[in-house]
Amino acid sequence: MRLGIVDGGHIFRKIETPTKTDQSQERIINHIKDSIHSIFNSNIRGIGVGVSGIIQSDKGIIKNTINIPWKDVPLKQILEKEFNVPVFINNDSNCFAFGERYYGEGTIYRDIVCIILSIGVGAGIIINNELYSGNNAGAGEIGSLPYLDSDYEGYCGQKFFTRNNTTAEKAYELALQGDAKTLALWNELGSHIGNLIKTVLFTYDPQAIILGGDIINGYDFFATKMYECVSVFPFKNADERVNILLSKKENINLLGAAALVV
């Protein structure tokens, strides 16, 4: 759990604390309240929250989460009562997209898709400068699209390395050492990510696609195969159709959560 006071795209008084996922819902909520209280002041005009899971964003209800055993938690109502300021809640992938649109690589674009390649694979979508989150903040769950014998999440994130009896961190270390077998693994990953990008081009046709998540640490090892795969996109030259960019700004999800308020 990361918190910070955000003003003008800058983070002040950032704190980071483990989420107490092994405790009761009430204790986790109290922990969130206490953490916010530790940095809250009278100048705060709103609270933005990004959560991994399905959100009913208009009412601020967390329907369920990936890492916390919650179901139908009215977090917006709880926090507004506690802090007496407006609270805005959305999916973490959407916060990533919001952060990139306002503070990161997407500031000059009208239509962008921001893809997180990490433990899971998800996307945040900006269309005509507006966040498109769907009815339950579930739009952009591209990792769940069927692909080969599984889905894109099984081939474009950390699960790809698990399927191959290693981890992304270990594969990165071995690639730096020039291990041929591991380099081939990164090349294969690049082809899968290229196919994912082509799926995004078919469905959303954005001006830019921004890649984030810890998998992009290995970008130099998978980029060539990724671009080779994208280059055979059937409609117009892919390099003219979309810009593929890497997320660079630190704490972009936190900035994006704060941007929900603005």
Order of helices and strands: EEHEEEEHEHEEEEEHHHHEHHEH
What characteristic shape results from the CA principal axes? globular
How many runs of DSSP E, i.e. beta strands?
Answer: 14
Uncertain segments of ≥5 residues (pLDDT<50)?
A: none
Question: Could you say what the CATH architecture of the largest domain is?
Answer: 2-Layer Sandwich
Quick tags:
262 residues; alpha/beta; Nucleotidyltransferase, domain 5; 2 domains; 5-stranded mixed β-sheet; 3-stranded antiparallel β-sheet; globular
Topology, please?
Elements: E1 2-7, E2 10-16, H1 25-37, E3 47-51, E4 53-56, E5 61-65, E6 71-73, H2 75-83, E7 87-91, H3 92-103, E8 112-117, E9 121-127, E10 130-132, E11 146-147, E12 150-151, H4 153-156, H5 158-163, H6 168-176, H7 180-203, E13 208-212, H8 219-230, H9 238-241, E14 243-246, H10 252-259
Parallel strand pairs: 3-7, 8-13, 13-14
Antiparallel strand pairs: 1-2, 4-5, 5-6, 8-9, 9-10, 11-12
Helix pairs in contact: 3-10, 6-7, 7-8
Q: What report would you give on this structure?
A:
With 262 residues, this protein is α/β, with parallel strands linked by helices. It folds into 2 domains: 2-94 and 253-259, ATPase, nucleotide binding domain (Nucleotidyltransferase, domain 5), CATH 3.30.420; 108-246, Nucleotidyltransferase, domain 5 (2-Layer Sandwich), CATH 3.30.420. It has a 5-stranded mixed β-sheet. It has a 3-stranded antiparallel β-sheet with strand order 4-5-6, covered by helices on one side. A two-stranded antiparallel ribbon has the order 1-2. It is built from 10 helices and 14 strands. The model has no long low-confidence stretch (mean pLDDT 92). Helix content is 39%, strand content 24%. Helix 3 (92-103) packs across helix 10 (252-259), helix 6 packs across helix 7 (180-203) and helix 7 (180-203) crosses helix 8 (219-230).
